[in-house]
UniProtKB/TrEMBL annotation:
It holds the Pfam family Thiamine_BP. InterPro entries: MTH1187/YkoF-like (IPR029756), Thiamine_BP (IPR002767), UPF0045_domain (IPR051614). Belongs to the UPF0045 family. One of its GO terms (cellular component) is cytosol. This is Thiamine-binding protein. Residues 11-100 form the Thiamine-binding protein domain.
Amino acid sequence: MSEKQPECSIAIQVLPKVEGEEVIRVVDEVIAYLKSSGLPVFVGPFETTVEGPFDQLMEMVKECQKICIRAGAPGVSSYVKIAYNPSVGVWSIDKKVTKHHQ
């Protein structure tokens, strides 16, 4: 492959313990944070995927929890999927989804 693959990819779904459409506001704050990283981000209807360096992504997972709390949620549950392969990398977001969004 000519293009360097990312070493890690995460998919995160945060479920802040708030009522009604307040969930959207809190989740939007998390998504804004993920996008501000400058890393490739793909927002889906149930989870957001980010790819990049393993250590940075693990810190971002931690920060997502704190963002929910600072945004007013008394608690948060999250589902996180991690693909990590430092020696050869993982498939990029583009490789996995571009053909489905043309």
